[in-house]
Specification:
By secondary structure, the chain is mainly β. It has helices at residues 128-133, 143-148, 154-163, 231-238, 242-253, 334-339; strands at residues 26-27, 32-33, 36-37, 43-52, 57-65, 71-78, 82-83, 104-107, 110-112, 115-122, 125-126, 166-168, 181-183, 186-197, 202-209, 214-216, 222-223, 226-227, 263-271, 282-290, 297-300, 306-307, 312-320, 326-333. Strands 9-8-15-5-4-20-23-22 form an 8-stranded mixed beta sheet, with no helix packed on it. A hairpin with a 2-residue loop joins strand 8 and strand 9. The radius of gyration is 22 Å and the shape is flat. The chain starts with 25 loop residues before the first strand and ends with a helix.
């Protein structure tokens, strides 16, 4: 399926998205998506019902074993990588948890406690054993992790600085400030579990998590009523069009800094292409995007998008092969943002 610009529907289409390039005063989103598994020619995804809002992502699947024998496999949910160089910012729903996106999964009505695999990476090199040997938490954003670095011996600190695991945030600041070390490694996390699909039977799986919502302090794709240099990128990434631009221009005119009213961008992304890890197309695919507030506007790429409520938009497809991931752009006022739960 080739994606085309969605209808903006009276300056309504709204939601979220992801950016690979950070704008000034911006926070990037963490890309997350659906379940993946050891590929099989017997298991198909009969249905996928995907709901996305700035507050939650919920996906309901119906898998079908088309063979005459049980099929056992490992199902996994790759979490987005977090951490890395201190100058890179990402919007993390819960920095103080290993389950930083509050991921949960239910299969045939029963909650599953998945295994968690974590790896410490620097430029793709695995240093998990080094960090575990020193009994330092692997999650780099935890306060406990930074505190634990203070217990490292000088020779370990020297070694970790050379490997790029830590950095001294006081280095090069001048004066006589003592070194202050912070973790700068990336954490790769994967939730996984073993499951068996009975012969000729359907299995229902549901998972949900809190999305990473990034954004910018202002409007990046336009300035003073005209498209900016970034507009072409937004056309490609979010399928913004003239209708969306006109709606955004109207909002920009309502800005009143003296009264504390201004508009800014929010982004959210979802990795749709994980659906291609299952055998064949997705039989029945439904996407619902909920902007939560009717006063915001949104743009994203899709075909046959229909408005189904004051804040919701739906896209449906049969025998669906996702060819690109989903990126959603939301323009919202600071007043709306403060009202959201």
């Amino acid at each position: 399926m080739t994606t085309v610009p969605t209808l903006i529907l009276a300056c309504a289409l709204q939601a979220l998205a992801t950016m690979t390039v950070l704008a000034n005063d911006s926070m990037a989103t963490l890309e997350a998506g659906g379940l993946v598994f050891t590929r099989s020619d017997e298991i198909t995804m009969a249905k996928e019902d995907l709901y996305i809002s700035p507050e939650k992502v919920q996906v309901k699947y119906l898998y079908r074993n088309t063979s005459d024998k049980p099929v056992s496999t490992i199902v996994a949910f790759p979490m987005p990588k977090i951490g890395g160089p201190i100058e890179i910012m990402s919007a993390v729903p819960d920095e103080q948890s290993d389950n930083f996106m509050d991921f949960s999964v239910v299969q045939d009505g029963k909650e599953i406690e998945p295994n968690l695999q974590q790896r410490v990476l620097v430029r793709g090199i695995d240093f998990t054993a080094d960090v575990e040997e020193q009994e330092i938490p692997l999650q780099p954003l935890l306060k406990e992790t930074t505190e634990a670095l203070k217990t490292l011996e000088p020779d370990v600190i020297e070694d970790w600085l050379a490997k790029g695991l830590i950095a001294d945030i006081n280095y090069g600041t001048g004066g006589e400030a003592s070194p202050e070390y912070v973790p700068v490694w990336e954490l790769e996390s994967i939730y996984w579990w073993e499951t068996t699909f009975p012969a000729g039977a359907d299995v229902e799986v549901e998972h949900r998590y809190r999305p990473s919502v990034g954004g910018s302090a202002g409007l990046v794709f336009m300035w003073d009523g005209k498209p900016s240099d970034a507009y072409a990128e937004y056309q490609e990434r979010y399928c913004v069009d003239d209708n969306f631009l006109k709606a955004a221009i109207k909002l920009e005119k309502k800005q009143n800094p003296d009264a504390g009213i201004y508009y800014f961008e929010q982004w959210l992304s979802y990795i749709l292409t994980t659906g291609n890890n299952w055998y064949g197309p997705i039989g029945d695919f439904r996407l619902t995007i909920d902007k939560l507030n009717p006063d915001s506007i949104v743009s994203f790429c899709g075909q046959g998008v229909k408005k189904t409520g004051p804040t919701t938009f739906e896209m449906r497809a049969k025998d669906f092969y996702p060819e690109r991931d989903l990126n959603i752009l939301l323009v919202v006022s600071n007043k709306v943002a403060m009202q959201d739960p």
